[in-house]
Amino acid sequence: MSGERIVIVGAGIAGAATAWHLAAAPGSRQVLVLEREPDPGRHATGRNAAILRSLMPDPLLGALAAESVPFFRDPPAGFAEQPLLDPVGLFLGAPAEHAGALRSWAVQPRTGAVEVSPAELYRRIPALAPGIEFTVHQPDEGVVDVHALLHGFLRGARAAGAELRLVTPALRLHVQGGRVAGLDTPAGRVPADKVVLAGGGWAARLAAAAGFPMPLVPYRRHILVTQPLRQVDPRWPVLWIAGDEFYFRPESGGLMMSACDKTPVDPDEGEVPDPSEKERIAALAARWLPAFAGAGAAHFWAGMRTYAPDERFLIGPDPRCGGLYWCAGLAGHGITCAPAAGALAAAWIVTGASRHPAAQAMAPSRLLVAPAPVGS
Ligand SMILES: Cc1cc2nc3c(=O)[nH]c(=O)nc-3n(C[C@H](O)[C@H](O)[C@H](O)COP(=O)(O)OP(=O)(O)OC[C@H]3O[C@@H](n4cnc5c(N)ncnc54)[C@H](O)[C@@H]3O)c2cc1C
């Protein structure tokens, strides 16, 4: 295949979705995805809660999520052999003292979400302790098959000519005359006309070493999955409790839970679990699901959610270096927003521009504004 050489660093959901959209775009190009692990999706993409939740306080992130939802419900023909979404439904709930805050951003014309009686939530999850006074229900959302999503993107990209090279870390970004020229790997230099940084918690490292720092910070979050519990109905919806910042959903016969911790970490340490977080999860579980207090943990792990300072994604060209692009900083919404995020990244890479309403708010240039001189 001829055309410009585009190298994507990272085969998590960001790199895979970008590769899929690039492969589908008109024109001819060579797309190569470099992944340092022996298989794709080992990091944030393989360590998350797999929840499709389109309601978000930030309207622009909410717009990317809303754009992505139809992809999950009705993926392109042949994308995956199984459904991408199990629409068990999703409730956002709040105790009285947090109801106003949740209502103010969730129940709006832009979201289309409506308040439902908490009785509906208690009907669906009878084991839930009293105290939720306000609820919003998204009946068509729920749990994503992340493996099917990731491999659907990668399979489609490869079928259209993209190459995935595993066990191939990108070690250094090679820049010549103000433009990217390639990436150094243990097997030698890979030439590139364009490089897309999609390395999740590590995305900022290559650019920083080449003189293009970007303020992306990975934050650790823990998830616990209980042993199978007889009283858990696998058709229970996802529940996210605002204010207490606790969520849970059925998983593997038990419950998956998180106390929504958010600790800044060095990416090399970001997946090392902190045992004290188990206690925090247990305390919130005892508050909201007392029938399951003392349920043993079958699995407990940590993963990284990577943020820009304004918590918006980092998608688009880096104005400091020709041919350098980002698809990173997908925070806690990278699964939900993957279809739209990949499309936005590919539009920038292929056309050099994007008319998407969120494009400028997600563009790297917004984070590179020089501070005003003192006294101005
Ligand atoms: C606990 C937790 C719960 C979450 N829950 C949800 C949820 O319910 N719903 C939701 O939408 N989102 C959720 N998220 C967020 C979501 O998982 C992330 O936004 C998304 O997975 C980020 O994908 P990524 O491709 O940017 O990063 P990653 O999946 O980390 O992928 C980056 C890849 O780049 C590779 N890489 C890095 N550097 C190099 C290099 N130099 N050379 C080669 N390869 C390299 C890595 O090996 C990795 O495979 C959650 C995240 C966590 C941690």
Compose a concise summary of this entry.
With 376 residues, the chain is an alpha+beta fold. It is built from nine helices and 21 strands.
CATH topology of the largest domain: FAD/NAD(P)-binding domain
| CATH superfamily descriptor of the largest domain | FAD/NAD(P)-binding domain
CATH architecture of the largest domain: 3-Layer(bba) Sandwich
The domain count comes to 2
- Following the backbone from N to C, one meets helices and strands in this order, namely EHEEHEEHEHEEHEEEEEHEEEEEHEEEHH
**Would you report the number of β strands?**
21
Low-confidence stretches: none
Cα Rg: 21 Å
Major beta-sheet overview: 9 strands, mixed
| Number of continuous helical runs | 9
Bound molecules: flavin-adenine dinucleotide
Content of β-strand: 25-35%
What's the N-to-C terminus distance?
A: 53 Å
Q: Helical content, roughly?
A: 25-40%
Mean pLDDT: 96
Name the structural class: alpha+beta
Shape: globular
CATH class of the largest domain: Alpha Beta
